[in-house]
Design brief:
The protein is α/β, with parallel strands linked by helices and about 325 residues long. The protein contains twelve helices and twelve strands. Strand 6 (about 145-150), helix 5 (about 155-165) and strand 7 form a beta-alpha-beta unit.
């Protein structure tokens, strides 16, 4: 039976002050909680720490599941993609612009998505030097995007990318879609109200039909950075692009129509220039009215291989692209002005 303090006082007994719950918690429990991390480390109780979340991996029916028969990395034994030294310029432009995009838009767009089509395994082997370098996914994974999405056709390559992304904190916000790019883009879910940077990096113009751009346009507000195969894709194959070519022609798919058939093929350089103008016109029709200056990527003999084309629906995007060009290619930028 509990005795009231008043009854004790009437009997000449001074009651001891009782500790309130908060006081007891502060005196006895809080010191233990403060020492809890030390106790865990001392006892090696790593099982009590939260597990790291892995990249979400989606395998489509169209995925290429054949075994990898090319080079593997000397660093981790996983598939590696053979590349030329010229990829450095492409990667520097991409990462500089991605940084401006992710940080410069974070107060205006709560959801900022990085989408890379034809991503590769995350490591490159520079054939001339034999040195390895990070692929574009690993160069952007620590930028301030809220979601990362990569697509890749080859299953061994996509699995290698997943393993290489796993150590990064942003792997928890990453998806890999293995399979045909067009199928993947149809299935990918991008949060409503997102601003997306889409890097489209195919090995040929037939791999990135204009219908792909149209799907992205319908799915999300996005800026585009597109690798267009200038040499191998168009100029060197000009003999295939004849007026009697059918609708399955790579150039027809690339442009989304066969308007290129009206262009003379006598001068390959002029042919490509006019094809590029048609492509820009198609982009403008979707609202990508702010086209940045294209960057020609050349080999060691200064022969153009491909170009990077930037397109946005907002002048701020072109402003960012100009800043990236000025920082990475100052001489070309000033000469172009």
């Amino acid at each position: 039976m509990r005795i009231r303090d008043s009854s004790l006082k009437n009997r000449g007994i001074t009651p001891k002050p009782r500790l309130k719950f908060r006081t007891r918690w502060t005196v006895f429990v809080l010191p233990l909680l403060l020492r809890f991390p030390e106790m865990i480390e001392a006892e090696g109780l790593t099982c009590l720490t939260a597990p790291r979340m892995k990249t979400a991996f989606h395998t489509l029916d169209s995925a290429d599941k054949s075994l990898w028969k090319e080079n593997v990395s000397a660093t981790d034994g996983l598939p590696i993609r053979d590349s030329g030294a010229w990829i450095e310029t492409k990667h520097r432009l991409l990462t500089y612009y991605a940084h401006l995009f992710a940080t410069g838009m974070k107060y205006n767009w709560k959801s900022r998505v990085y989408l890379e089509l034809f991503s590769g395994p995350g490591r490159c082997l520079i054939r001339k030097t034999g040195k390895e370098d990070l692929g574009s996914p690993l160069k952007v994974i620590e930028h301030e995007f809220t979601k990362f999405i990569f697509t890749e056709m080859s299953l061994p390559v996509a699995e290698a990318l997943a393993q290489r992304l796993e150590p990064f904190d942003n792997a928890a916000y990453t998806e890999i879609w293995c399979g045909d790019c067009a199928e993947a883009v149809q299935k990918i879910l991008i949060p409503a109200g997102s601003l997306t940077l889409a890097f489209i990096d195919p090995t040929g113009i037939g791999h990135a039909p204009f219908s792909l751009i149209e799907t992205l346009h319908r799915k999300t507000r996005c800026d585009l950075l597109i690798n267009i195969q200038h040499g191998m894709g168009i100029k060197m194959n000009i003999h295939q692009y004849t007026p009697d070519a059918d609708e399955q022609s790579a150039l027809t798919k690339f442009l989304g129509n066969n308007s290129w058939k009206q262009i003379s093929r006598h001068d390959p350089r002029e042919f490509f220039r006019l094809v590029l103008e048609l492509y820009k016109k198609q982009l403008d029709g979707l609202g990508f009215s702010f086209i940045g200056r294209e960057v020609f990527i050349t080999n060691d003999q200064n022969t153009p291989l491909y170009l990077l084309l930037y397109a946005s629906k907002h002048p701020k995007g072109k402003e960012f692209w100009d800043k990236a060009m000025k920082a990475v290619l100052p001489m070309e930028f000033e000469f172009g002005n």
